[in-house]
């Protein structure tokens, strides 16, 4: 029988051999041996080790560290000054305006992570800056650094969070929409930074592989809180980064072990959990857990007692140690057993006080960052252990209320000052003054020298692109002719238009179609062979449909970005592409196709982030409308996206019915966004409903009317009895029903109606709202006139006779009702309120009461209410039209 001693010797022989390989051959060779052992175990049905995390220690060992290149003494002073100014800015703001908000504790925990980056890593190379997603709640620290750099003055800092009161102010968080020359990325909607950074890194590779951008050593840094990693968007796309080997991507997760209310994993260990997740997904994981003061303890810990204790200590207890005095730490951690007690016996309380987390040691952070940028294999995640509210003492250090700390009293301010050695006098302390090192000071000179060496100050946002040369006009004019009695859906019209644009010599190469695995639904598969599907590697398999003309063709320089089933990932790509004019100097035109139901409703927060980021591009909501998607039912039938779009100030939302309308809108969108550089997004809905596309009316100013939201498609030349003007308004797929209703009114009831195509209720709403606001402030002149008033003046001298308006759409009644008050007459809205159903389009339109018969009936009922149609005749009309009196309201939720 083999004895325990013999096993121990055998174990040591294995370990010594493996250690020899590491020291004398290479890490890759060591990995090969491990893989061979794993394969051997699998072949012999020996279960593999399920543990995906390493011991609770630093990944970069002290013995392997390189010399720190910076002047630690000066950097400490700079860091202390910036910490103080960040805190002072928040305190001043809340003393001046109680409750104005701001955050101190997040930057207190991440300051060293930022500063090592600013001093040694965040670079600008040949005009291409590293892209840095700063943790949103740490914004005061970034502002404070820019103050020391002389990019902001004291007045600007004093206007933190006072954007309305002052034109010289700082936004609450990173908001490019509000500070367009400073912030690059919006990051404070927690969970959206990781997914945006991943797809930004991938889009950089896309541009390089398509030859639109030269390869450069640009890195994408994402600073994220450990608490926000619980958001699905935070981890949902990490396999993409590993799969495409995005070695330009670095996550730095600020693991202060706390979220807003308490511990992230009080009873567990969030760092170990994240390590397992990222390692399993194929990322390189670097843990920065302990400062250099711990190195000697680990060196003495020959039996692994200290590591074992750290492995077993839950995060909630770690937080308590950070918040408690040294006596508590010694008693409850180092006196767990005699071995630990002996390990710490030579350490004084002062020595224990110096044992800081790795995320607060610039030397340890530097080693991690350097290892990250040298990783050529794929993405890297750095898990840095920090303390929330580090250095704040009783003013929130490691406490559960740290996130809410806005004000420090005099004693707390003195503690903060003394803790970091900031040169502020006692007599000034209550005023919480900023400290600005003189320009001839060693601190200022050092800071400027570091940034000069790295290429300049950051963050900074520039619009580096040149205006796009418009596509050839003939591309758009083609759609003025109509479909020559052939039926076609606007979906196919859009694909034909996109195909032509991709071939255009001016704009073609900049157009980027983005699709979440619905190409065949939208007819986008017809572009597979023309444009190719982007892939990070060349297609290395034989497609099952290779004999087909429209086969699945993947290419490294492919144009179409086929994201798979992820609207969130697709929207993140849209943001990356839509901000390429600023980040890459390229007028990239993203065209994002998606099920309209899964746009604003599903990824509204990312659309808002795109608005904040000043993204430009086309969002194409396919198979849109509540009644235009036969058979799909409640989860797929969209009747609300255009209502959601009303809330987005930068979105131009259109629901075109005809080919020429769509062409005019796309042309105008390209001109506005990529020639005139307006930071807008165009949301356009298209349908699978096939009907004849009429030729474009030869009316003066029709293009402007289409863009402005409404034009007269068919004006009645015959007046009705009693001089009543009947106006039927239609949009998208319901416009043909409105046209049919006008014909039925004339044929069956001798009533003549004008038909109006409403291409955009949002355009009408925004315009009328602006005009109303302008007139309200015009000192009684009231000279502004809305687009609605152009056709229907409110001046009674020009507005004789009664008017009735019936507006039918495939969306909630709230959409047309949003503009009802600006129409001078009775306004009746028909829409598709309620849950969608599975049935044919005709049956659905009857159910939701938006088909031609219901439009006719509602028009007659409106006339009846105005005293212009007989009640008895109305009853007869119901029978003729087949209107069921017993039907329930389709808006009933059941």
TrEMBL record:
One of its GO terms (molecular function) is metal ion binding. The lineage of its organism: Bacteria, Pseudomonadati, Bacteroidota, Chitinophagia, Chitinophagales. Residues 709-851 form the Transketolase-like C-terminal domain. Signal peptide: none annotated. Pfam families: PDH_E1_M, Transketolase_C_1, Transketolase_N. Keywords: Magnesium, Metal-binding, Oxidoreductase, Pyruvate, Thiamine pyrophosphate. Its EC number is 1.2.4.1. It comes from Niastella populi. NCBIfam families: aceE. Component of the pyruvate dehydrogenase (PDH) complex, that catalyzes the overall conversion of pyruvate to acetyl-CoA and CO(2). Residues 472-694 form the Pyruvate dehydrogenase E1 component middle domain. It catalyses: N(6)-[(R)-lipoyl]-L-lysyl-[protein] + pyruvate + H(+) = N(6)-[(R)-S(8)-acetyldihydrolipoyl]-L-lysyl-[protein] + CO2. It is an enzyme of class 1 (oxidoreductase). The keyword Oxidoreductase applies. Coiled coil: none annotated. This is Pyruvate dehydrogenase E1 component. Mg(2+) binds at residues 226, 256, 258. Its cofactor is thiamine diphosphate; Mg(2+). InterPro entries: PDC_E1_N, PDH/Transketolase, PDH_E1, PDH_E1_M, THDP-binding, Transketo_C/PFOR_II, Transketolase-like_C_2, Transketolase_N. The keyword Hydrolase does not apply. PANTHER family: PYRUVATE DEHYDROGENASE E1 COMPONENT. Residues 209-292 form the Transketolase N-terminal domain.
